[in-house]
Sequence to fold (410 residues):
Amino acid sequence: MKLIAICSALVILSTRAPALVVETNFEGASAADVKIDESAHSVSFRPAGDPMRGWPCWWYFKVSDLKPDETLTLRLRGSSALMPRSEPKAPLAASWAMPDQATYSTDGKTWLHTEPGKREKEWMIYTLKPGAASAFVAWGPPYTPETATEFVRAMSAKSPHAKAQELCQSRGGRPVPMLRVAEGDRPVEKRFGVWVEARQHAWESGSSWVAQGFTEWLLGAEADAAWLRQHAEIFIVPVMDVDNTAAGNGGKDELPQDHNRDWSDAPHWTEVATAQRKIGDWVKQGRMDVFLDLHNPAPGDKKAFFYALPADLMKEPMLGLRDHFIQVATQRIGEVFPMLDAPKNDGPKYHPLWRQISGTWVSMNGNPHTVGVCLETSWNTPSSTTTGYRSVGTRLASAVRAYLGERPVR
Fold:
């Protein structure tokens, strides 16, 4: 309620409802061209990502001064920014910013789907009734660098077998949280090497939730999880591109190149260079066993799948081991999340910089027995929730255990 002076002697209470407030002053937030329509109880907006820092498809903001019994309408348009790599110059296709169902939360912790949105020409319209005075709304369930830091610290405090570490400091001066997991006194040179990383593309938030599910299973009470901890050294990086994730940028196709095109002899990004050195140490020790790069795919990909090198670019035993691991993981993940039966190929027909993609780099620079793959978990399905993503992670972790259980123990 607001005090309004009438003439010089009379003060009355206004009955006007408080105006909606949109906030973007927090980590990972992104919204541009915001317009509030009080009468329709709606917010119109676009993603605000810098196209020089990747695809502007991620959006995330807070709406306050809601009435608990009212419906909030979100009116989304795609970014109008011209993409620097496109010829001729054109905006990113709006479908990348328009999930079938948006995501919302009233506490910033529990994330729910809205009802399916409705496409009206250039607009995607979502409606929700949060039942609270404020709500966070987003393209998908956010997972910021702060979330990653809190998670690795919590796991380190929970388990004596986990240690919170930093992969490095980013070019923007941010820490890149990492968790090391190993149980018992087995020497490191006799342990399998397992590397798990997510968010080389900052907008693909679901991949971090997959990494979290992997970690939760790994540090759980199951005998299989204990076996993996006792026989392997596992590093997990929930967010690789911390700078773009924190700023609300997309990361994909940024300049000079995105993180997953940077695995060269002279990488631009500190995160990539540091990961290469650590993986290179494992290769020298002959124990680069499993490399998992976690992503989210295109809007129309309704089933999860693996990306892997074409068979004609690989040699044995790497090819047979890689295919066997994919078979084991596909079967397990497919029990909880829609999954393609066979992997898709990257390689020279996929991208001009295919040799600089992380899974390819690891395979080409690894040991003869190295398995290096990318898992793409669908973001545009009813199962694309924190629960669904984490279930993929648990099954992926159990597949690593099953696969390594068949390998000779060092």
User: Anything to note?
Assistant: Helices lie at 145-158, 206-218, 223-231, 242-247, 270-284, 318-333, 358-365, 386-404. The CA atoms of residues 161 and 183 lie 5 Å apart.
